[in-house]
Amino acid sequence: xxxxxxxxxxxxxxLAPVDADAPLLLARLRAGDEAAFVGLVATHHxxxxxxxxxxxxxxxxxxxxxxxxxxxVVRGIERFEGRSSLRTWLLTILVNRARSAGTRExxxxxxxxxxxxxxxxxxxxxxxxxSPPEHWVEDAENRLGAAALATLIRDALAELPARQRAVIxxxxxxxxxxxxxxxxxxxxxxxxxxxxHRGRSHLRQALESALGEND
Length: 215
Known about the structure:
Largest sheet: none
Number of domains: 2
Order of helices and strands: HHHHHHHHH
Number of strands: 0
CATH topology of the largest domain: Rna Polymerase Sigma Factor, Chain: A
């Protein structure tokens, strides 16, 4: 395979995205088609950066992880057997590198995310809601400005354990199917559902608190 120069990441927004699973893309990548690779970077760089950031402590380290992943993709594309989608393959490479980088930073990735998804004080002695969740979805955008809402969600995400952040980023932000999330993060379906539920519950509580303050 001919050498492909990695595109400048700062210019990615001007590049045309490509379908990572288009039938001819893999052949083009293996043939050293630089345009195909540049388009692949344009399509997936932002999602990869978000995912890497769930494992490491700074954007600079996340950028390094993403760059290292693209180098690994270039070097390993000939060995890709197509048992999973190209997107799943490259995100799995990213997760492996991000976890290694996180370990080097002496950060721990929890084996199990313990603790209740919702504060027990929200339930009465019979197990029913003592303070039911607000229906915040319908009017959240009216009660919080877009910038404030984005900041709130970002801060709430930062408080989550790493695996919950990763599941939320892949499933809810990037729209991957549950099966893909499980494959990329090496999770069982039941574990993925638990992590997704706990992450969403934390975000919901953060939004409820913010909306209550704006009443």
